[in-house]
Amino acid sequence: MQTPIVVYRRDTRAWRAQVWISFGAAASLCAIGLAWLPGTDLDRAFMVMGYVFCLSTAFALAKFVRDNERRHSDTPLWSVVVWGRFALAMGLTGWGLVHMDINPTYKAYLGVCWLFLISSAFTLAKTLRDAYEADLADARAQRGDTQ
Questions:
Q1: What whole-number distance in Å separates Cα of residue 98 and Cα of residue 108?
Q2: Predicted pLDDT of residue 6
Q3: pLDDT score, position 79
Q4: Is residue 69 domain-resident?
Q5: Does residue 107 contact residue 97 with C-beta atoms inside 8 Å?
Q6: Is 77 part of a structural domain of the chain?
Q7: pLDDT tens sequence across 32-61
Q8: H or E element in which residue 50 lies
Q9: Within a 13 Å sphere around the CA of 14, how many CA atoms are in the beta-carbon half?
């Protein structure tokens, strides 16, 4: 019996461009909003750290979920750590945003930019991982590897 070869469909250049443009727009909008954030330097520093923490945990969570998609390769405690970090990052950043003494319109702007950044980070992580897996499949096919 012959082992079936899995064919990975590559994303189009238009999709990859859209993903990168969306991520760049989200990061730029967040940077602009944080650069002109009214309030104290401490408020600005807290929000910059919060956004960076959220962004890094979003990429870590995307990798964790994808790595454990077919089989659980991580320990249950690592699952708690990854999910807990993401929840903590989002919760603390959201709490800081809500409790900041700034105009509600500015809060809404920062909140929308923040959620756009996180959602575009998940999309970017998936797109990069899909391309990586397609490259691995191509390399295996060229070697004649069926696994």
A1: 9
A2: 55
A3: 92
A4: yes
A5: yes
A6: yes
A7: 999 999 888 888 999 999 999 999 999 999
A8: helix 41-67
A9: 0
Sequence letter at residue 4: P
For 17, 51, 138, the CA distances from 56, given in Å and listed in that order, are: 22, 9, 29
6 in a domain, yes or no?
no
In total, how many domains does the chain have?
Answer: 1
Q: What are phi and psi of 138, to 5 degrees?
A: -65, -45
Q: Determine, yes or no, domain membership for 21.
A: yes
Alpha-carbon span 116 to 19, nearest angstrom: 12
Q: What is the CA radius of gyration of the chain?
A: 19
Q: Give per-residue pLDDT as tens, 79-102.
A: 999 999 999 999 999 999 999 999
Q: Write out the residue range of the structural domain in which residue 37 sits.
A: 13-143
Cβ 124 vs Cβ 61: under 8 Å: no
